[in-house]
Design brief:
The complex is a heterodimer of chains A (123) and B (405).
Chain A (H helix, E strand, L loop, with lengths): L1 E8 L1 H5 L3 H21 L2 E6 L7 E6 L2 E6 L8 E9 L3 H8 L11 E6 L10
Antiparallel strand pairs in A: 1-5, 1-6, 2-5, 3-4
Chain B lengths: L2 H23 L2 H22 L5 H18 L2 H14 L11 H8 L6 H12 L4 H7 L4 H17 L9 H24 L11 H15 L4 H14 L25 H15 L6 H14 L8 H14 L3 H15 L1 H9 L11 H13 L3 H14 L3 H13 L4
Classes of the chains: A alpha+beta (123), B mainly alpha (405).
């Protein structure tokens, strides 16, 4: 079963962390990625640039209208994700609990099952 | 021989060749890799150079060399030999034993997750390549390769021998094997059709593997039951989806499109097995499928018999999904109210409360009972709960017909 584990970050919360804490989060993700690769459960992981770099695209009267900044007026933004293929939802939750973000108040880790997949999986 | 013919031949030979190697050298892990390499080499060479007179001996010889090379870690030697393998091969005489069952016992080791058991079974016993298995499950090849390699490490760490477990453990392991074959079948059966022509047909592979288990254990009621169940289910395949890929429920399927040959084979297996001493869950489910197959139209279905069989199934393998199916049969036999009353008993079951299948069955029964608003609401909630796109489309379609104006 495929699950998307999405990481919802709050830039203010991240900014308030010490350098050691930030380094520990990075190392924690590194270990997590290695474990997922070795167990044959990782499909893909990606991290996204800061939400301030986002472009919101709309088409009005057939013309694209592009504005800067994130779509949602929120404190938390999608920071990245893990796409995993594992036994069941319980296992996906068990995996998500190893992500360092889960230990920090103000950061969100969400697990949702994938309903449709396509694309080049051979890459 | 055509390429598909060679593919079938190779898949059938894989467990025999692997069994021979493991008997000779031990080291399941290394032997499995070597056989996979030999099979890949054959898939490249045989279509152009012809199938050798003794294909099994050829594979054993080539796989043995690969294994020896692996052990020596002599990279240069391996590359030189793979280029000349076909010319030099003098096939060895191989004892005519079928190790399929022993290999299945090994691949379905309890130390592995079901996903790993499934992947390893398809490669080591089914003869599929890692790339094919990855395509079947829509994951990258590297992901599948890591999963298979981890599974083999676990088996080695568990110290498993290449021998059938004894006594009660053997029974238990056989149940795991049957469950893995059932999962492989289901994966193939529920995979949506259309754009996935390049994916291997897992339903067909599951039938082939279950047939080989049945060939070795024809007296086991559950083995016969599983084979019958998947044959009878597979028989409906052409009728269960529209050309556009939409699901067609059992009562609306074109029964003339059901595969009569598979139905006859499945029904005969059920009849013979029911005369035996055991009555296990697969056999009872096969008997239910045979009852449906026996009805020329949906209206002719013997729902009393289906209901009785679900009652038996619930007794030998209690499970809320079985109760759900029994409620469907009861509603057909005695009317929707009786079915809804039975469904109410599931609301307190934490495994089923709010489950999309419960919502979906309740929606159908409410619709039949004339409660359009209730049915609409339940179809909508069921559609939100399912992880299957085809099922979601179906449920939304049912809801759309009842939308309040």
């Amino acid at each position: 079963m495929k699950f998307l584990i999405s990481l919802h970050i709050n830039p203010a919360v991240l900014d308030a962390l010490t350098d050691e804490e930030k380094a520990a989060i990075g190392a924690g993700h590194g270990t997590f990625i290695e474990e997922l690769k070795e167990s044959g459960e990782l499909i893909l992981t990606q991290a996204l640039v800061d939400p301030s770099q986002a472009a919101v695209v709309k088409v009005r009267n057939g013309q694209p209208v592009v504005t800067d900044g994130p779509f949602l007026e929120a404190k938390e933004f999608l920071g990245g994700f893990y796409l995993v293929d594992c036994e069941d939802k319980e296992r996906a939750i068990e995996l998500a609990a190893r992500i360092p973000d889960t230990r920090i108040e103000g950061l969100g880790v969400e697990v949702r099952q994938v309903m449709f997949s396509d694309g080049n999986l051979e890459a | 021989m055509t390429a598909p013919g060679i593919e079938d031949l190779l898949r059938g030979l894989t467990p025999q060749v692997l069994g021979t190697l493991v008997r000779k050298y031990g080291r399941f892990e290394g032997c499995e890799d070597a056989v996979q390499e030999a099979v890949l080499a054959a898939a490249v060479q045989w279509p152009s150079e012809g199938v050798p007179d003794n294909p099994r001996g050829w594979l054993v010889t080539v796989a043995s060399r690969r294994l020896v090379d692996q052990v020596r870690s002599d990279r240069a030697r391996r590359e030189r030999e793979s280029a000349t393998a076909a010319a030099e091969v003098v096939p060895e005489e191989v004892p005519d034993t079928d190790d399929t069952l022993l290999l299945l016992f090994l691949c379905c080791h309890p130390a592995l997750t079901a996903a790993s058991q499934t992947a390893l079974t398809l490669r080591a016993v089914g003869g599929l390549t890692t790339a094919e298995i990855a395509r079947a499950f829509l994951v990258p090849e590297a992901t599948m390769a890591a999963r298979i390699s981890r599974a083999k490490q676990r088996i080695r760490a568990a110290g498993s021998a290449f021998a059938a477990p004894a006594g009660a453990e053997r029974e238990e392991r056989l149940r795991v094997v049957l469950h893995v074959l059932y999962l492989i079948f289901n994966e193939g059966y529920t995979a949506s059709s259309g754009s996935e022509l390049d994916r291997p047909d897992l339903a067909r592979e599951a039938i082939r593997l279950t047939r080989s288990v049945y060939a070795q254990l024809p007296g086991d009621g559950e083995v016969a039951g599983l084979l019958a169940l998947i044959l009878l289910t597979h028989a409906r395949r052409a009728a269960r989806t529209t050309a556009a890929g939409d699901l067609v429920p059992l009562d609306e399927q074109d029964r003339t499109a059901w595969d009569r040959e598979l139905i006859d084979e499945g029904t005969a297996l059920v009849k013979a097995a029911l005369a035996g001493p055991e009555l296990g869950p697969y056999l009872v489910q096969a008997a239910i499928a045979a009852t449906h197959a026996d009805a020329p139209t949906a209206a002719d279905t013997d729902w009393r018999q289906v209901y009785g069989l679900y009652l038996v199934l619930e007794r030998i393998a209690p499970n809320p999904v079985v109760t759900l199916n029994r409620a469907v049969a009861l509603a057909e036999a005695e009317g929707p109210r009786a079915g809804l009353d039975l469904l109410a008993t599931l609301d307190t079951d934490a495994r089923m409360a709010g489950h999309h299948r419960l919502l979906s069955v309740r929606a159908h029964l409410l619709e039949r009972d004339g409660d359009r608003a209730g049915a609409y609401e339940h179809y909508r909630r069921a559609a939100r709960g399912t992880a299957s796109l085809a099922e979601q489309r179906y449920l939304e379609g049912r809801a759309a017909r009842l939308r309040p104006s």
